[in-house]
Specification:
By secondary structure, this protein is α+β, with helices and mostly antiparallel strands.
C-alpha cells in the first residue's frame, strides 16, 4: 500500500509515480481524487480503480474521470464492508462497473485484464474498422435520434472497444435483462426477465416509498454452468432533474447463497402454470391495493371537504348568533326609547289637558294665532266678540288691528258678515 508523506500528493505520469505539493494552500484536501484523475489521464482505458472499505467522499471526481476515459471501476459490496461509506459513495456516482464481495474482486480484475488485452486498440485502427464505425454511425443516425458524427473517431473507437471488453466481464448481467420485444424501450421492468420482474418492481416501489436503499433477493442465474445467487440493489440518488434510482444486480456472498431448487422436467409445465397464476393474482392484488389507495385518498379528500364545510357552518352560525345578540340589544334600546316616548307623550297630554282646563275656567277672551296669523285656538269668551263659525280665521278676511280702544278686526268674516269691533 502506497501512502504519500504528509502535505504531499501522489500522482501518476509517464508510467511512474510522482510526489507534488498541493497547488491550493487552503480548502478541502482530496488526495485520492488527485491520484485517480492523474491515473485516468496517463493510462486512459488501462486505468483500473478498486474502492474498498472506508469512510469519506474523496475519490468521487476521480472515479468519474476514469470512467470518462474508458477505465474500469470496481467497488466492494457495502453490505460486507467494515465501513460502507466509501463504497456506497462510489456507487452513488454512477461510475462503478461492478459491485462485488472483496474475495471476488481479484478474479474479476484478472479476467478483465485478460479480456481487454485481447481487444486493446492499436495505434492506428485498420481501415475496415473505420469503415465499420462509419456504417454504425450512419445506421444509428437513420434509425435513432442520436447523431455521433460530431464525436472524435478516436474517442468512439476507444469506447466501442472498451465496451466490447466490458461486455465479456459483465456478461452475466445479461441474464437479468434482455431486449424487450416490440418497440425499443429503456423501461427496465420491460427488459427484466419474467421470473425477476415482480421482485425488481417491488424493490423499486419500496425504494421510492421509503426513499432509502433496498436490497432484495433476486434469485439465481446460471453463469459458466454454475448456479449463482444474486441480490437486487436499488439506491435513490440525487440528480439534476430530480431523484434517480441506481439499480444493481449484485452477486450474493457465498455464505448467503442457497442451492437453487431443482424442478423435475415433468413438473415444469405445472410450475410454469402456477407461476403465471401467482403472477396474475399478484397483479390483481396490486390493482386492488392501488384502487384501495385511490379510494382512501378520495375519502380523505371528501373528509377534508366535509370538515371545511362544517367549519364554514360553524362560522356562519357564530355570525348569526352575533347578529341575534345585536338585534336583541337594538330591540332593548328601541323598547327603552318607546317607553320614553310614551312617557313624554303622556306628559304632553297632561299639560294640554291642564292648559285647556285653565283656559275653559277663565272668562278672559283669548285668541291663539300662528305665524301666518291663523287662529289656532280661542277661549269660549271670544264668542262674545267674534263670529266663530270656523276655527280658522284668516287675517286676510279679518286682520286684527290694535287701536286706542283695543283690538279690532278689519274686513269681513268668512261668511260675509262684518267682524265685530272690540270696544
Amino acid at each position: 500500500m502506497l501512502s504519500p508523506p504528509p502535505g504531499l500528493y501522489l500522482s501518476v505520469g509517464d508510467g511512474a509515480l510522482h510526489l507534488s505539493r498541493p497547488q491550493a494552500r487552503h480548502g478541502a484536501r482530496l488526495p485520492f481524487d488527485f491520484l485517480l484523475r492523474s491515473l485516468a489521464t496517463d493510462c486512459g482505458t488501462r486505468a483500473i480503480a478498486v474502492i474498498l472499505s472506508g469512510t469519506g467522499t474523496d475519490g468521487g471526481l476521480g472515479l468519474r474521470a476514469i470512467k470518462e476515459q474508458g477505465g474500469f471501476v470496481v467497488a466492494q459490496d457495502p453490505d460486507e464492508a467494515g465501513q460502507a461509506g466509501m463504497p456506497q459513495n462510489a456507487i452513488m456516482t454512477g461510475a462503478v462497473d461492478l459491485v462485488l464481495p472483496a474475495d471476488k474482486i481479484p478474479g474479476k480484475l484478472i479476467e478483465y485484464c485478460q479480456r481487454i488485452a485481447g481487444v486493446r486498440p492499436s495505434a492506428s485502427p485498420p481501415e475496415n474498422a473505420q469503415d465499420s464505425l462509419s456504417k454504425i454511425i450512419d445506421f444509428l443516425r437513420a434509425e435513432t435520434p442520436y447523431d455521433f458524427r460530431q464525436y472524435k473517431r478516436g474517442t468512439l473507437q476507444r469506447r466501442v472497444e472498451q465496451r466490447m471488453a466490458l461486455a465479456a466481464a459483465k456478461s452475466h448481467d445479461m441474464d437479468h435483462l434482455r431486449v424487450a420485444p416490440g418497440q425499443a424501450t429503456n423501461d427496465v421492468l420491460a427488459m427484466a426477465r419474467e421470473g425477476m420482474r415482480t421482485k425488481l418492481k417491488s424493490a423499486i416501489q419500496q425504494a421510492i416509498q421509503e426513499n432509502a436503499r433496498v436490497v432484495a433477493a433476486g434469485g439465481g442465474v446460471a453463469h459458466d454452468g454454475t448456479a449463482v445467487s444474486f441480490n437486487i440493489d436499488v439506491q435513490p440518488i440525487p440528480g439534476e432533474d430530480g431523484e434517480l434510482l441506481l439499480v444493481c444486480f449484485v452477486e450474493a456472498p457465498k455464505d448467503r447463497q442457497s442451492a437453487p431448487e431443482i424442478v423435475a422436467p415433468r413438473d415444469a409445465p405445472r410450475v410454469t402454470e402456477l407461476e403465471h397464476d401467482i403472477e396474475a393474482t399478484r397483479r390483481e392484488l396490486q390493482g386492488a391495493i392501488r384502487d384501495l389507495q385511490i379510494a382512501t385518498e378520495e375519502h380523505h379528500t371528501a373528509h377534508d371537504e366535509a370538515l371545511s364545510i362544517d367549519e364554514e357552518f360553524q362560522s356562519t352560525n357564530e355570525e348569526l348568533l352575533t347578529s341575534k345578540e345585536e338585534l336583541q340589544s337594538l330591540n332593548k334600546e328601541l323598547t327603552a326609547l318607546n317607553g320614553q316616548f310614551q312617557e313624554t307623550l303622556e306628559q304632553q297630554r297632561t299639560t294640554s289637558n291642564d292648559l285647556q282646563n285653565i283656559l275653559y275656567s277663565t272668562n278672559v277672551a283669548t285668541l291663539f294665532l300662528d305665524i301666518n296669523l291663523d287662529i289656532r285656538y280661542f277661549t269660549p269668551a271670544i264668542r262674545s266678540l267674534f263670529s266663530t263659525d270656523s276655527r280658522r280665521y284668516r287675517a286676510a278676511a279679518g286682520r286684527l288691528h290694535l287701536t286706542g280702544s283695543g283690538w279690532r278686526a278689519a274686513g269681513r268674516g268668512p261668511h260675509g258678515a262684518a267682524d265685530p269691533r272690540a270696544g
